[in-house]
Structure prediction request, 753 residues.
Amino acid sequence: MPAFPDRTLDQLRRAVAKIDPASSLELKGGLRLGVPTLDAMLEGGLAFGALHELAPASPFELGAAFGFAFSLAALAAVDGRQVLYIETDFAAMEGGAPYGPGLDQLGLSLDQLLILQVAQPRDALFACEEALKCPALAATLVELPEDGVAADPVATRRLALAVQAGGGLGLLLRQKASPLPIPAMTRWQVAAAVSEPDRFGGLGRTRFDLLLKRNRRGRCGRVIACWNHDQHSFAPEALSLGLAEAARDRSDRAPLRRTA
Amino acid sequence: MNDAAARLGLTTGMALADAKAMYPALSVADAEPQADARLLAAVADWCDRYTPLIGLDPPDGLLLDITGCAHLFGGEAALGRDIVRRLAQQGLAARVAVADTAGGAWAAARFEKSCLVVPPGGTREALLPLQLAALRIAPEVQEALAQVGLKRIADVIDRPRAPLAARFGQHFIRRLDQALGRDEEPITPRLPVPACVVERRFAEPILLEADVLGTIEFLAHELARVLERRGEGARRLAVALFRTDGKVARAEVGTGAPLRDPARIRALFVERIAAAGDIANPGFGFDVIRLAALATERCDPVQTGLAAPDHSADLAHLIDRLGARFGLRRITRLVPQDTHIPEFAVAAVPAAEDRPPLSRGQAQRTDDRRQQGKNYLSSEPAPTQAGACRPSSDSPTRPIRLFPRPEPIEAMAEVPDGPPVRFRWRQVLHQVAHAEGPERIAMEWWRDEKGRVLTRDYFRIESESGVRAWLYREGLYGHERAPPRWFLHGLFA
Prediction:
């Protein structure tokens, strides 16, 4: 990246944008994640109308990658729009099927979730292209088995064009990272991070170890983000000690006790 | 037996040895009743171009209800001639008769010399000279009648009915009445009769898929006009493509909501034809294309709002298109169920059947419906806001991915009820850092009469690398099976 001065790059980008408006990197709207470091890296949030690629760091961290993808979808769907999840039969057998109660706790209401199961990865990409064009969907997630070989540059280019037309969030979840370049706005590697145990030594909040490997609009980097299951948002910063407990706002939960 | 054999003097029911003795060069093939039935069904399909109401009359007949259809083909006689001519082009010999009643037409087609149109009210006169076999009665009854000298319909038609019924059975009288139109005889249609049909015929057969789709859209415009007048929309649509060589290809699509927008109807058939590629194989071309609404539902015009763009129509259309391509059952919603068994806590319901609340304002209606339905959580209003399922804690209590089959793992745990210390899943050893549990989930005893299903103790664990999983031990130490087995059931975020 630093091989060119920024100004040259900007000029080139503007010139290309004049020729091909679709390749413009102007942000049409960003999904703010609520993690200051991440939002700064993304320069205004995760771009709507763009494709984002996610993969787990290891096969065992599929749950984390899946959880991060769905937390992004839940954030995008706060306006009540729908989320479509596309999976292949094989992926559901191998890695498990999405489970309603868990997704509900994560923050995505079941009324807002549509699930499509298809036989082949090729079908999944076709369905994804159709869905990305639909403005009624806040986010479309497609999960591809293994390294998602079917998602070649041509197929993903079609997806990228479709998502620009629809304006939703296109999330391409691979079960295994692929070195193939695709026209995605960002590429993430998601791993599970060790959580901060709660007061009683039990499991704390879910933490993701996010490695932003590719970002067409800003810097790359590594961030640990913590998902708050109560408020359905990313917690700003994971505070270190037990002091964090006192600072938690539970006004919605026990208003009587507070006033008394 | 074909016409050539009939000319040689052979008859049905003759012994094969006799026939061979008369004509040693006779070529013989086994009868194939199933193949004949298939051919009859194919011909019935083809006859669909004349009327949608066609009944099979096995082994060799078809009953067509052409009420209100004949004028489209230039009258009843012209329609009959058209059927004979077109079937002859396909190598099939047919006899056609048109009459007031199904029984009358049956008799006229089989026992008259040529293609015949019995004039309205003339069924009785037409039947008089025919043999009694024309009444579709069993050979025994026919023989019994012949023994007493009754051979033609004219012999029995005016006789007192009671003695005839007493001697030759009620069925005989019933057949006579049906032929004369005194008793009803419904034609059972082979295919469901559509609520509304539009079709287009071509002087020259069309070959291109684009033309076919263009025709479907054109027909959809006409269908939309008819449906709009009735205030209805289609829930199930079928298109029938009649090939010039007699084959009929059919494609059917379902919709999640009543539909009459022509462009959307076309889009559904684009998907359907793409999914099953051989439908649009034109052969020598299609000469008739028909679009039918098989099921309709009330569909009132909707007031468009000014406040916010309403995407519900877009969403319904997307579901229909994906459904047309992959099957409407493949696109589902998860609906909470009234059970505590983890794998049955939600059921996947086809999205086209379970209409979603498309905006927050409609959520109330879903609540009402859920309280009515037995399958829904009926004790309290169902959650519509995310996260309302459970009292919250710092970490979720249910995984986001559940394995359809719990995966067996090797685990080391404290006896009797301790959480696992380490476990091996998919050949990799995981060291447990934190665990919460057990959450004991016993199976539903009222469904488990023999007491074979074991109790499960679920643990939520986090490994040293941060991976979270939902494990369970099947069976209790000392009470149920020993040694209990461990499974990994789901993954947390």
Chain B touches chain A through 70 residues (CB under 8 Å). Residues 209-230 of chain B form the longest helix (22 residues). Residues 213 and 279 of chain B are 12 Å apart (CA to CA). Chain B has a mean pLDDT of 82.
